[in-house]
Amino acid sequence: ANAGGGGTIRLAGGCTYTMANPDNATDGGNALPVITAPVIIIGQAGTSIARSTSPTTPDFRLFEVESGGTLTLNTLTVTGGNADLDGGGVLIHGGTVNLTASQVSGNTARSGGGVFSDAAGSLSLVDSQVGQNTSSGTGLQGGGGIGVTEGSAVTLTRSTVMDNTAAYFGGGMLITGGASVVARSSKVDGNVSEGNDGGIADGLATSTGVLTLLDSEVNNNHAFDDGGLDTSEGSTATLTSSLVIGNAVLAPEGIAEAGGIGNGGTTSLARSIVAANTATGST
Asked: How far apart are CA 245 and CA 268, in angstroms?
């Protein structure tokens, strides 16, 4: 489909398509050819594309989408990717990815454990979930579930980013480099950062982000600082009819700050609730 200028692939239901070796070594390796055309992959209940769990399996992600390419996944799970660089499940390098009724779960990368987008890429999730992914990078890296930078744009509609983990920043999502995230009727829930920003890191240091939450929730996330979300200097966050509830900061050896929201930039709330968040520290 990719080589032919685009097409549709239909997969069987209740089937796991297991990848034991990468097709190519681009950007650290991909299970399948780099997407450069409009490709649609349609699954059914129980359809998965997975990297093999054998201990001898080399590291690679499942998909990479280049500029000019569009990957549309419908009723499909992408799981088990392990990338040395960014994007454990999916790397969007200037291309477009659309997920409908799909999951990106159990993947690991330096940044964007589930999905990473750069070079003004585009990601859309509708009735989908990014969950149980891990970002292992330190420094200015992170985004256990989703990492976006370099002017990329993400939209979530009735979707969930949950139970992801970051080693340093943004357990659920990391937004930098002028990237933007718009979430409608969506949830960022139960994510953990072993450093800062349990739910969402909106900007980082001098690298800014734009976050818009509409009728959405940032709940039950945990971090060392900024349990729910953090807006850094120069970044903006707008919450409308949204909830920030039950997030927590635990700093057993220092100062605990911002159980719900940490604001170093511009954060605006309308018809929203910030409640039952906690910050606990030894000093």
From this structure: 16
- Give one DSSP letter per residue of 123-156, joined into a string: EEEES-EEES-EE---TT-B-SSEEE-TT-EEEE
Cβ atoms 142, 173 nearer than 8 A? no
> Going by DSSP bridges, is the β-strand pair 222-223/248-251 parallel, antiparallel, or unpaired?
parallel
Whole-prediction pTM: 0.97
Q: Are 130 and 123 in contact (CB under 8 A)?
A: no
State the chain's mean pLDDT as an integer. 96
**Per 3-state DSSP, what percentage of the chain is helix, strand, and coil (rounded to 5)?**
0, 50, 50
How is residue 26 annotated by DSSP? G
Q: For the segment 161-207, what is each residue's pLDDT rounded down to a tens digit?
A: 999 999 999 999 999 999 999 999 999 999 999 999 999 999 998 89
Q: What is the DSSP-derived secondary structure letter of residue 246?
A: S
Total Cβ atoms within 10 A of residue 107: 31
Q: Rg of the chain over CA atoms, in angstroms?
A: 18
